[in-house]
Specification:
Elements lengths: L2 E6 L1 H4 L1 H6 L4 E3 L6 H9 L5 E6 L6 E14 L23 E16 H6 L19 E4 L1 H9 L2
Parallel strand pairs: 1-3
Antiparallel strand pairs: 1-6, 2-5, 3-4, 4-5
The protein binds a DNA duplex through loops.
Length: 153
DNA sequence: GCCAACGTTGGC
DNA sequence: GCCAACGTTGGC
């Protein structure tokens, strides 16, 4: 059992959008970064992830999702008309992968990035999200960090 | 293999 | 909209 953090822009796809999906489940497609891809391939069924709202007025953790399908080829990479199309990825030799996530619950309130930053020196020392210049859209969270962040709720 | 140019991310 | 900090690309 591992914990993760997955970023999404609420203007594009936020936690309210996930809540409206059939079975509150969506495929996490469009990831085009090797390290983020590798993290997704490490995910197991039942792993949980924070649903993080990025690039918005109040960046922060909005909810919890569960991995309900492990990594499989991301078909948007094969679609010439898709903005994430990558001619280097083919069905025979896929380069990009995605997982399915299911909403577990919204947090009672958004735990903001600025709050997390306030804890960066102590309780959240080493949190990948807070490391300088980190732009990965999929990140690991330790069990200790996970529990501590939830205690802020 | 080096590295400049370019594109992207994402907080502010 | 700005811009720092990346990652990627491609000429050499």
């Amino acid at each position: 059992m591992h914990y993760w953090l997955m970023k999404s822009e609420p203007d594009v796809f936020g936690i309210d959008d996930l809540a409206k999906m059939t079975r509150r489940t969506t495929g996490w497609d469009g990831v085009r970064n090797y390290q983020a891809r590798n993290y997704m391939r490490e995910m197991a069924r039942g792993d949980q992830a924070f649903f993080y709202h990025s690039n918005c007025a109040e960046p922060g953790i909005a909810g919890i999702v569960e991995i309900t399908r492990t990594a499989y080829p991301d078909p948007t990479a094969f679609d010439r008309k898709d903005p994430h199309y990558d001619p280097g990825s083919t069905p025979e030799k896929p380069r990009w992968f995605m997982v399915d996530v299911t909403l577990v619950r919204r947090l009672r309130r958004v735990i903001t990035l600025s709050e997390l930053k306030n804890k960066a020196e102590k309780e959240l020392d080493g949190l990948a999200l807070l490391r300088r210049g980190n732009r990965l859209s999929v990140l690991p969270v330790s069990t200790r960090q996970w529990r501590y962040i939830l205690s802020l709720e």
